[in-house]
Amino acid sequence: MISPLAFVDPTAKLGKDVTIHPFAYIDADTVVGDGCEIMPYASVVRGSTLGNQVKVYQGAIIGADPQDFRWKGGRSKCVIGDRTVIREHVIINRGFHDEEGTTVGCDCFVFADSHIGHDSHIAPRCVVGNAVTIAGDVKVEEGSILSSNVVLHEHCRVGKYALVKGGTRISSNVPPFVIMAHNPVTYYGVNSIVMRKHAGFTDEQIDDVAKAYRHIYQCSTSIFNALKRIEADIDESPVRDEILRFVRDNNMQLAGDRFQAD
After folding, report:
1. 208-238 per-position pLDDT tens digit
2. CA neighbours within 13 Å on the CB side: how many for 256?
């Protein structure tokens, strides 16, 4: 159903069973997949692609112009994955210097009043809470949860199945499987409930994660030495290797590390 009170550019590509409510705006050079629903006063701006069964609530803007002085009006993109829910007044900026543009993966929930900056990448099955602010060039890996009013600064990385508690400001990298809270940001433990109930990790795997982070955050040693201890003390496994990969890929710069300014 497409309301006659909505604006849909004739060049927009619409899938099957799309619902577009009154006063919604669908720009040129857009793709809206099968089964999508665009609520009143929501906008899908040029360069945007919505997967199947995406729901965009009132007042949200998908594919807003990048908020970056380097953008001079060239080609830019925003891609939303299947079954993702975008709540009221969310703003997602298109990306312009990453070939993929800005991406939000499948099965994500982006809650009201949040902002996702240009060229950021939100992996599948993430939750972005109310009024979360994500700057440009941020990467959030699969299954992570950003609680209400979290702030992620430019170039931050958040690892898989991490939980950042409400109001926390992040200016470094949050490793996988952890809980981060407070300002200045502090390591708050392992995100064991989500890992066990929603991601299928075993108790043994969760124990290995806890051991690894005791070396990193609770043993009064450098991250370099902590990684050596992890390799010596914990048997090789996917969760151990995921932690080592993340830390090394991000130059051993971690949020909550007492030897670094966050």
Report:
1. 999 999 999 999 899 999 999 999 999 999 9
2. 22
